[in-house]
Amino acid sequence: MSASSGDPKGPQRALVTGAASGLGQAIALGFARRGVAVAIADIDSRGGEETRAACATLGVRAIFLQVDLLTADGPDEMVRSAIEELGGLNILVNNAGYGTGEAFLEMTAKTWDRTLGLNLRAMALSCAAAGRHMAAQKSGHIINITSPASRMALPTYTAYSASKAGVDALTRAGAIALAKHGVFVNSVAPGMMDTAMQRTTEVLFAKLDGRNDVEQYLAERTARVPLGRRTSCDEVAEGVIWLALDAPPYVTAERLNLSGGLDKD
Ligand SMILES: NC(=O)c1ccc[n+]([C@@H]2O[C@H](COP(=O)([O-])OP(=O)(O)OC[C@H]3O[C@@H](n4cnc5c(N)ncnc54)[C@H](O)[C@@H]3O)[C@@H](O)[C@H]2O)c1
User: Fold this and answer.
1) Residue 121 confidence (pLDDT)
2) HSE (CB half, 13 Å, CA atoms) of 68?
3) Which one of 17, 76, 98, 151 would you pick to mutate in the ligand 1 pocket, going by the greatest count of ligand atoms within 8 A of its CB?
4) How high is the pLDDT of residue 264?
């Protein structure tokens, strides 16, 4: 089923956060290929502009919104601008994220503040801002990017895994708050994708685990995935787009594991 302008759902407009690179960029491009107008939100204006131009080449309306989601007003302003500039909003993908490795006994306030501020507080405020608009129009989809880390014991990645556990709580609460308004709230848990953020973090994990054979360390981590390989941003983006455009209208409060069996529930 296509969600382009001929679709009974009508023209679709999506806001994707953290879409200057990695998974967010793949999601924005995936929407553009399906005829969905996209707002690309990111702090990185160079990457954001590149994603915008690539989406526009596919023939859809594409805008870039520069935003620091760590600011108190960033999420509200971003949602308001997307609605104004796209002429409405049907889909929000909360993808922007941050994580860094830190030994449990050496945790810092700086890491906790940045990780919870972006991964959880900004996501919550974005859900509420978009949720108000979607509740009024009686339709919409919100998809939050979580992580298998949210359900693992990770002593060198505690702030990140706690933030993603918070994302799971937020997704469940949002789904219930918005169900009666015809708005669906789900999440996607991606497996390991070799993005810049992932590589930097895994190199740090190796160091914190006292390993200097980084390539061997990475291979061991890959071997732990039951399907025996890492995934890609494009593969995970397919799952996000399916939830937003194609899933039966009875799927809400769901967590879609796209982690090759790493996350088994
Ligand atoms: N890469 C993986 O293996 C993996 C696995 C599981 C979950 N995830 C999640 O997927 C999502 C995307 O991660 P990625 O690997 O593509 O990372 P990435 O670093 O490539 O992308 C994150 C984006 O967020 C943007 N961003 C950072 N701080 C911001 C701020 N203050 N305001 C606005 N934008 C900001 C960055 O500029 C960047 O474009 C994250 O939520 C991450 O936690 C990634």
Assistant:
1) 98
2) 4
3) 98
4) 75
For residues 37 and 12, the answer to whether their CB atoms sit within 8 Å is yes
Give the C-alpha distances (Å, rounded to integers) separating 3 from 9, 171, 230: 7, 24, 30
Asked if residues 41 and 65 have their Cβ atoms less than 8 Å apart, the reply is yes
Residue 46 CB less than 6 A away from ligand 1: no
Q: Helix or strand or coil: residue 84? A: helix
Q: Is the CB of 192 under 6 A from ligand 1?
A: yes
Please list the ranges in the chain whose pLDDT falls under 70. 1-8, 265
> Of 45, 73, 195, 201, which is best to mutate to test ligand 1, by the most ligand atoms within 8 angstroms of its C-beta?
195
User: pLDDT tens for residues 48-92?
Assistant: 999 999 999 999 999 999 999 999 999 999 999 999 999 999 999
Alpha-carbon dihedral angle through residues 33, 98, 215, 27, given to the nearest 10 degrees: -10
Q: Please identify, by atom number, the ligand 1 atom nearest to the C-alpha of residue 146.
A: 7
Burial class (CB in 10 A: 0-12, 13-18, 19+), 59: exposed
What's the whole-model pTM score?
A: 0.97
**Is the beta carbon of 64 within 6 A of some atom in ligand 1?**
no
- Classify residue 226 by burial, with Cβ atoms within 10 Å: 0-12, 13-18, 19+: exposed
Residue 178 has what DSSP assignment? H
